[in-house]
Amino acid sequence: MLRSTLRALYSGPYAKLLRRFFVVGSFAAGVQMVLLWLFVEIGNLNYLLGAVIAIELTIVLSYVLNNAWTFQTMQNTGGVEYLQGLLKTNVVRGTAIPIQLGVLFVLVEWVTVPYLLANAVAIGISGLYRFALDTHWTWG
């Protein structure tokens, strides 16, 4: 079961999408980490508030990049369709924010992991959830 699932991720119908989604997500995660650091260390914001702002900014960035490259064969074009896709991805990714913030909070406050490392873990945990929903709803 696990072996066939992993094989499908490598060579199945969603393999190319998953690889591209991962590249875009990795880039956006890097941007999110820099923004979080700036908000906390330079802007003196609480790490959770900084994370919410950084997440929302990278939601928009991720949508633009995923629409142009990852899901180019299903691309949302035209003004209304593009904005509907942006709204859908905000709903999808918005539902992932509590997951990401929850993991971030638990790791920082209970396990005493540094906030940037905890955020990286939280991004990874919520990533597969976002891929599944974006693939089937935002561009499905």
Automatic annotation (TrEMBL):
The keyword NAD does not apply. Residues 20-139 form the GtrA/DPMS transmembrane domain. It is found in: Membrane. GO terms for cellular component: plasma membrane. It is an enzyme of class 2 (transferase). Its EC number is 2.4.1.83. GO terms for biological process: polysaccharide biosynthetic process. It is a multi-pass membrane protein. InterPro entries: GtrA_CellWall_Glycosyl, GtrA_DPMS_TM. Keywords: Glycosyltransferase, Membrane, Transferase, Transmembrane, Transmembrane helix. The chain crosses the membrane at residues 21-40, 46-69, 114-133. One of its GO terms (molecular function) is dolichyl-phosphate beta-D-mannosyltransferase activity. Pfam families: GtrA_DPMS_TM. It comes from the Archaea. Belongs to the GtrA family. This is Dolichol-phosphate mannosyltransferase protein. It comes from Halorhabdus tiamatea SARL4B.
